Amino acid sequence: MAKLSYSEDDRQYLQMMQENITRMASNSNNCKSWMVTIVAAFLALSCGIDALNGWILLAVLPTVAFWYLDVFYLHLERRMRNRELDFIIKAKALADDADNETKIALYNSALYNFAPLSKDTLTDEEKALGYVRTNDRWYSESEKTFYLCVFVVLLLITIILNWDSICSVFSWFCSLF
């Protein structure tokens, strides 16, 4: 196998791909930061104003919205990583057989192609090459853990702040029987 040396165009393309991937990761991180800030504002308002104790559950709306944005950027980042890997694989194949017209055409079609590459199902060969599935973004362990923890905290704080109301409703309900 010949040692792969990237041309200036290859390097420029890979640098642009990395900048896109970095931007998607940064956007995903910003979604988490903004969500925490907004939820903290809801918590501060709910704890400071007694009449707003039940309104803390409104913090669920921005949490869901930011969860959606976060997984959207995660999905896009994974698809861009697949596109970058696809280019690298085609560049390596061309380096192995530089006279093959098919490989030259595949390489040329991959160079400066910024369309995200979806891989909903992967073959064993694609897994070995390093492609990642892109259709499981909602089930990412980091996303589930982070946002479900936020939901649990919101629920617990709502219960704590409204404990007297919950007990009175419960006692009223028990008096019916």
SSE layout and pairings?
Layout: H1 8-48, H2 60-96, H3 101-110, H4 124-129, H5 141-161, H6 163-175
Helix pairs in contact: 1-2, 2-3, 2-5
Please tell me about this protein's structure.
It is a single chain. This protein has 177 residues and is mainly α. The protein has one domain. It contains six helices and no strands. The chain has helices spanning 8-48, 60-96, 101-110, 124-129, 141-161, 163-175. α2 (60-96) packs antiparallel against α5 (141-161). The longest helix is centred in the N-terminal third of the chain and has 41 residues, at 8-48. The mean pLDDT is 85.
Care to give the gist of this entry?
With 177 residues, the protein is mostly helical. Helix content is 72%, strand content 0%.
